[in-house]
Amino acid sequence: MDILSKLQAPEGANKKSKRVGRGPGSGNGKTAGRGQKGQKARSKGNINKKHFQGGQTPIQRRLPKRGFRNPLATPVVAVNIGDLESVFDSGATVDLAALHGARLVQGKLTDFQKARSHVKVLGDGELTKKLTVSAHRFSKSAVEKIQAAGGSVVELPRVPQAEKKAEAAKA
Asked: How many angstroms separate the CA atoms of 115 and 137, rounded?
């Protein structure tokens, strides 16, 4: 039991911390080991940061910013005429629910129904079947091909329903 009370750490295991700024007799008085003047001698002169570039304008501010992404833009999903030809039978009505059910349009169906997202029909491919196609937008070539096959085009309103109600309330 006496042995435990006499245990000591080996020499050099516990190093005392350097006490700086305690007068000239300590060897680290006056400037406290920071040298004379300059940024590193100041109280908030810690510049040991990865992104610090010596006070010059940082590279992320020197390089020019390119482009712009509109956060209010309405997302548009493209569907080709050739896809409609391969999925739907002649005489079918191709609306938003049918496109979503056939997995030609990804995303929430309610977003398309409330015009938060738009469906645009493009004229890539051939159409031989008579279809009634409902979508928010159509390319000129798509309209020509649908009508040439004997089908019809129904353009849905592009403005979200909530905005329409707000406009009606103002008027």
From this structure: 11
